[in-house]
# Entry
Amino acid sequence: MHEKAPLLNATHREKLGTRYNDRLRAKGGLPAVVYGRGKDPVPISLDHREASRFIHKGEKVFRLDFPGQKDMDEGQMVLLKELQFDHLGTNIVHADFARVSLTDRIHTKVPIHIIGEAIGLKQAGAILMHPTVELDVECVVAELPDFIEVSVADLDVGHGITAGDVKLPVASMKLLTDKHAMIAQIVIQHEIVVAEAATVGAEAAQPEVITAKKPEEGAEGAAAGAKPAAGAKPAAGAKPAAGGAPAASAGGAKPAAGGGAKK
# Structure
């Protein structure tokens, strides 16, 4: 592990604070801190591109080249403990490292690599679920693997592989993840279809709105011929009832044409 661990070149950060860290990042640097083993924390700067490349590959343990620093041993081994990302969650903006020895037992996370083609995937509608992507383990630094392989070649529909089923690469490694955590599982993906009959039935179940009954044919005429109540004035333009006296016109009634008054 000591020979395989990537080498990171570090320099001391003289100035601290958000403003100076932003300037450092603008120049291609990555602010970081190294702590642990009874020594004071040391603020350092790394090459952002170099460090990010190793971190994204899944590297956890590094050799740190930090010349001229009494608090750092030559070729100091460090373990990546925590990362901070920008608001988009894609760009690393800060890293924390802990000093370790090759013989130290550590708690860390190891990524899972799924290998093989599951026999259950040959069935129509079958998909592979992979909810747990890393395992929490305890192991010696020198025995920390880059990843743990899990074969799903024999996995059939309705079956799964849990964390307890995974064979750890080293006998001294201890599993800290819940042994019932699902690593891989083959399930059938069902398409949910809403029946049109259900929609039609829902519409049919709506209560019927009863509107006012329209008057039957001839009823309107009967209503029009109805006499007004006693003392009520006839509507404007209404004709007098049959046999009734004509209404007097303004200025008095005119005599009939050609008729004169008899003496």
Q: What stands out?
A: The domain at 103-191 is CATH 2.170.120.20 (RNA Polymerase Alpha Subunit; Chain A, domain 2). The longest strand covers residues 105-115.
